[in-house]
Design brief:
Layout: H1 7-18, H2 24-37, E1 46-51, H3 57-72, E2 77-82, H4 85-100, E3 107-109, E4 114-119, E5 122-130, E6 147-151, H5 158-166, E7 175-180, H6 188-192, H7 197-200, E8 202-207, H8 217-224, H9 229-235, H10 253-256, E9 266-272, E10 279-286, E11 291-299, H11 301-304, H12 310-320, E12 326-331, H13 336-344, E13 349-351, H14 356-368, E14 372-374, H15 379-385, H16 405-416
Parallel strand pairs: 1-7, 1-8, 2-5, 2-6, 6-7, 9-12, 11-14, 12-13
Antiparallel strand pairs: 3-4, 4-5, 9-10, 10-11
Helix pairs in contact: 1-2, 2-3, 3-4, 12-13, 14-16
């Protein structure tokens, strides 16, 4: 595997040192410019940039892609690709627009998702595509491209990436630009591109937060505290690694279990709905900093060999919340009939955010930071914390679908309520 881990950051840092009175964004443009102008870069068909979050790779790649395409092509078509059109515009196009202010004024057609750029004596068109699922490959069929930038390529299906790359095969000078945060070491992009850079004629650049000149040591330390376990290895160290073992190894009864007789704050309930599968609900008191799971209700129709109705579950929720003013009940978004029952009974219901891996990451961070505490009575939660594991046989990050009902209702609460709180420190633009 051919890696060039230092060349890019070095030119980036040198430019910032020599041109300290120029904007931070322009310093990264110069780094990108230096990369594409390297004589040896002509031997590559692709550039792959991976590594930690907040390292500046997205902005530097975006600017480099624009400079490279405008210098070398005229009246050609290119593509910016993201997980979705909205995320692409938010993470790539809008920051790129800001950088272009005072340099060039692109003509952007938001309704048709493209922009035309006139610069350096050339004019080119840049289409915007979202590669969110297996059907997305149809979006790029039939178009001829001279280059493609994939932002967060590890979040895209292989079929979409392959089809977008195929759109460039008739252009001998076309290049592919990839950036991403690492995922599993079993991920298709890692195996096909990063492990085969020589065969793919790809330049591989690895980034860390230390490569981003706008981040202070304090900001880096704040960012590091947001991640733990496998997510720390990926998003801070920038490593491609398999999720394995316990999902929440940081849960410790000595740390997270407290007897708080009179907690103060807003009251919430989180629910993972089940009929034969277990129904799990937790009563929370949240003071804006720490959430305390005061009590829980847990019922398995399969174990008890008897299902309960929505009305019976509603009665259990009413008993769990007796005497409390409940701000909201956060519910498994698939439980449509039970949501209707709750609303009819007068509860304010919010559908839980259900990105499993992101929710696990947030929950792990909350446990690590001491933002989740539990009453000694929450025995079903404790049992599942000790049993909830990653599926090591899967090529994707996926928990084993066992011992996960309290884990799911906790995740709904964290992802929906705790995520709304502002982060303690802003950790940079990128």
């Amino acid at each position: 595997m051919k890696r060039v881990p230092s060349r890019f950051p070095t030119c980036w840092k040198n430019w910032r040192r020599d041109c300290h009175d120029i904007s931070e964004l322009f310093s990264q443009a110069a780094a990108s410019n230096a990369l594409v102008a390297m004589p040896e870069s002509k031997q590559y068909d692709a550039i792959v940039c991976d590594g930690s979050v907040r390292s500046g790779k997205t902005m530097a790649m975006s600017i480099g892609f624009l400079i490279w395409s405008m210098r070398n092509f005229d009246r050609e078509s290119f593509a910016f690709c993201g997980k979705t059109i909205d995320s692409l515009k938010r993470n790539v196009i809008q920051p790129l627009q800001k950088w272009m202010e005072g340099i060039v004024q692109p003509k952007i057609n938001l309704s048709k998702n493209y922009m035309d750029v006139q610069w350096l004596g050339h004019e080119n068109r840049y289409y915007f595509f979202g590669g969110k699922d297996e059907s997305s490959y149809t979006l790029v069929q039939g178009i001829t491209l001279s280059g493609v930038l994939f932002d967060e390529v590890a979040l895209m299906p292989k079929s979409f990436v392959d089809q977008a790359v195929a759109r460039t095969l008739s252009e001998p000078e076309a290049r592919y630009w990839f950036n991403c945060n690492p995922e599993s070491a079993e991920h298709w992009f890692y195996k096909e591109w990063i492990c085969n850079t020589r065969q793919k004629k790809a330049l591989h650049l690895h980034f860390t937060m230390q490569d981003n000149p706008i981040l202070s040591p304090e900001q880096i330390a704040d960012a590091e505290r947001l991640y733990t376990g496998v997510f720390y290895n990926r998003y801070i160290k920038g490593l491609w690694c398999v999720a394995e073992g316990l999902i929440y190894p940081m849960f410790d009864k000595a740390v997270h279990v407290k007897s708080l007789p009179h907690p103060q704050g807003e009251w919430y309930v989180s629910v993972d709905y089940g009929t034969l599968n277990a129904f799990s609900a937790g009563l929370w008191c949240y003071d804006g900093t720490t959430a305390y799971r005061v009590a829980e209700y847990y019922y398995s129709g399969r174990e008890q060999k008897r299902q309960r109705t929505n009305t019976q579950y509603l009665q259990s929720i009413q008993q769990l919340t007796a005497g409390k003013s409940i701000s909201a009940v956060i519910v498994d978004p698939s439980a449509a009939s039970f949501i209707a029952e709750l609303r009819q009974a007068g509860f304010l219901v919010r559908k839980g955010k259900n990105d499993v891996v992101e929710g696990i990451r947030r929950t792990a961070a909350a446990l690590e930071q001491g933002k989740l505490l539990f009453s000694p009575d929450c025995k079903n939660s404790f049992r599942e914390f000790a049993l909830y594991r990653w599926d090591e046989s899967s090529s994707q990050d996926r928990p084993i679908k066992e011992n996960d009902h309290a884990m799911d209702d906790i995740r709904y609460f964290v992802s929906t309520i705790l995520r709304e709180q502002p982060k303690p420190t802003r950790i940079g633009k990128f």
